[in-house]
């Protein structure tokens, strides 16, 4: 088997390399990190560059938290001191320059702002802010830094890994050229313009507007949700409905803008942003799912060239503030709301449209960033022990988990319309998961999320799939003897910051999501 990669390898070259040479050849994709490429090697041979990218992405997601953090930490701060002193990789330097972040293009006061925000971000999360620079500019990077500082750590790590996947896609295109694309779209050749025929090239294209913040005051209330025993939630007044909306255009429609600089068929991302904000006012529904469906229809009607869209909405949670009343009591304010930074709803929707009529290709709903600590009633015992084991049996531990829950409907129409009889609100999902955690004496987090999944599928027969990503944030004991005084006081402290990651997806057999 070959052991040395050429300076410009083909996909066939990569398929023939041994594991070490393969990982070394792909090291520039991940800022010198090779562990994901070494794991992806097992999936050879790759039929396309997109197959290779997907294998790399799967390897990253399957890696433990330490490896994921090492990958994120290998990326430099955007417009940071390392970039200004040329201590970054050639790929990162070029990407930052393309986003207007080259050192000679940033004024001293702007550099100071980047340094301050980068430092605050690292202090909060323990890793650098990562965003795909090729899809960003200076203003959007700054706005993203400020916005994402308010997110939960688990949400930020997942976001950073998703951004690294986007970065990897572009770098793989640089490495493999025509072999990297997955879209059947072919470049117009020179012969199309009356010249000599050039090589056929396949492209994968997307562009759009990310994280458009909108705050809709007095949206339609959410009514008609069937109650469940585990939750008090049956309605939401939607006096304030706030979210960040991302719209991504897929397909080969704007190809000539890339290949010839011909923008005749290109819808400006500024126009995309303005349509999102304008239609937020016209929106007559009550849920984020219905909002995305509304936007997909409006985009399809306004721009026939935007036939294939990927949309995402992330709730900006605001809770009404409790204020004193004239009678000396307290009541919920109808006008004052406090921004929350805990769990939030998320929705993803991929659609195609024909004259404003949309078809849903894929969808996923969720509630992310749930943080729960149960003081008793959780154990972890009888696990594999060997020379690497230092963890003692924990017969009764205060279990602290960070939890993301996602679900898909058997019929997406149950989520997208104005009839909420079969709608599953994130509030009820969160409450049901909390109820299971409360009552269950769990043997592990694996056991806990499984029981949550069983309960969700039983309670909501309209769901085809539920999935979980849970981080074990359990604190370390430092004082108090749980064995000698079971009900006595104890003290715990933060553990070493490398958290166990547990994932689970449960799908009904014979049902497509």
Attribute tags:
Urate Oxidase, 16 helices, eight-stranded antiparallel β-sheet, alpha+beta, two-stranded antiparallel ribbon, 513 residues, 14 strands, UraD-like, 23% strand
Helix content: 25-40%
Strand order across the largest sheet = 3-4-5-8-9-10-11-14
- Sheet with the most strands, sense and barrel status: 8 strands, antiparallel
Give the SSE order as H and E letters: HHHHHHHHHHEEEEHHHEEEEEEHHHEEEE
CATH class group of the largest domain: Alpha Beta
Question: How is this structure best described in words?
Answer:
The chain is an alpha+beta fold and 513 residues long. It has two domains: 11-179, Oxo-4-hydroxy-4-carboxy-5-ureidoimidazoline decarboxylase (UraD-like); 206-323 and 335-507, Roll (Urate Oxidase). It contains 16 helices and 14 strands. An eight-stranded antiparallel sheet has the order 3-4-5-8-9-10-11-14, sandwiched between helices. Strands 1-2 form a two-stranded antiparallel sheet. The radius of gyration is 25 Å and the shape is globular. 33% of the residues are buried. Mean pLDDT is 84; it is low at 1-6 and 182-199.
Précis, in short:
By secondary structure, the chain is α+β, with helices and mostly antiparallel strands.
Produce the secondary structure layout:
Elements: H1 11-16, H2 19-25, H3 35-40, H4 49-62, H5 65-73, H6 81-84, H7 90-98, H8 108-125, H9 138-148, H10 153-176, E1 185-186, E2 202-203, E3 206-217, E4 240-250, H11 255-259, H12 269-282, H13 288-302, E5 308-315, E6 318-324, E7 330-339, E8 344-354, E9 357-374, E10 399-409, H14 413-416, H15 426-439, H16 445-459, E11 463-472, E12 476-479, E13 491-493, E14 500-507
Antiparallel strand pairs: 1-2, 3-4, 4-5, 5-8, 6-7, 8-9, 9-10, 10-11, 11-14, 12-13
Helix pairs in contact: 4-10, 5-10, 8-9, 12-13, 15-16
């Amino acid at each position: 088997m070959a052991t040395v990669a050429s300076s410009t390898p083909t996909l066939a070259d990569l398929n023939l390399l041994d594991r070490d040479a393969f990982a070394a050849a792909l090291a520039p994709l991940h800022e010198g990190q090779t562990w994901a490429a070494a794991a992806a090697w097992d999936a050879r041979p790759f039929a396309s560059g997109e197959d290779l990218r997907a294998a790399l992405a799967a390897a990253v997601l399957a890696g433990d938290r330490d490896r994921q953090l090492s990958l994120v930490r290998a990326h430099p701060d955007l417009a940071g001191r390392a970039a200004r002193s040329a201590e970054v990789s050639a790929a990162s330097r070029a990407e930052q320059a393309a986003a207007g972040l080259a050192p000679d293009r940033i004024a001293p006061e702007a550099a100071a702002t980047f340094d301050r925000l980068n430092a605050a971000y690292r202090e909060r999360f323990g890793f650098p802010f990562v965003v795909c620079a090729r899809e960003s500019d200076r203003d959007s990077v700054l706005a993203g830094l400020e916005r994402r500082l308010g997110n939960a750590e688990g949400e930020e790590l997942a976001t950073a890994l998703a951004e690294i996947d986007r970065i990897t896609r572009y770098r793989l295109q640089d490495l493999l050229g025509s072999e990297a694309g997955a879209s059947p779209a072919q470049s117009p050749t020179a012969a199309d313009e009356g010249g000599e025929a050039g090589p056929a090239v396949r492209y994968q294209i997307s562009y759009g507007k990310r994280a458009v913040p909108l705050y809709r005051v007095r949206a339609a209330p959410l009514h008609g949700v069937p109650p469940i025993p585990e939750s008090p939630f049956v309605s939401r007044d939607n006096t304030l409905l706030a979210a960040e909306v991302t719209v991504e255009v897929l397909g080969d429609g704007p190809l000539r803008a890339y290949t010839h600089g011909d923008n005749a068929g290109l819808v400006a991302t500024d126009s995309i942003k303005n349509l999102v904000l304008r239609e937020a006012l016209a929106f007559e529904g009550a849920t984020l799912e219905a909002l995305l469906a509304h936007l997909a229809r409006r985009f399809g009607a306004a721009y026939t060239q935007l036939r294939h869209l990927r949309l995402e909405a992330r709730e900006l949670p605001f809770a009404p503030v409790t204020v004193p009343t004239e009678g000396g009591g307290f009541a919920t304010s109808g006008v004052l709301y406090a921004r929350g930074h805990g769990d939030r709803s998320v929705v993803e929707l991929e659609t195609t449209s024909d004259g404003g009529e949309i078809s849903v290709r894929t969808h996923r709903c969720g509630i992310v960033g749930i943080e729960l600590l149960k003081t008793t009633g959780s154990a972890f015992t009888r696990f594999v022990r060997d020379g690497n084991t230092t963890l003692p049996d924990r017969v009764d531990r205060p279990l602290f988990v960070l939890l993301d829950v996602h679900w898909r409907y058997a019929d997406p129409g149950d989520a997208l319309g104005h009839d909420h009889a079969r709608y599953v609100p994130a509030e009820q999902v969160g409450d049901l998961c909390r109820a299971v955690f409360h009552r269950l004496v769990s043997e592990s987090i694996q056991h806990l999320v499984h029981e949550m999944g069983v309960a969700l599928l039983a309670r909501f027969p309209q769901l085809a799939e539920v999935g979980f990503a849970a981080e074990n944030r359990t604190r370390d004991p430092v004082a108090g003897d749980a064995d000698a005084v079971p009900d006595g006081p104890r003290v715990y402290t933060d553990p070493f910051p490398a958290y166990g990651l547990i994932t689970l997806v449960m799908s009904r057999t014979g049902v497509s999501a």
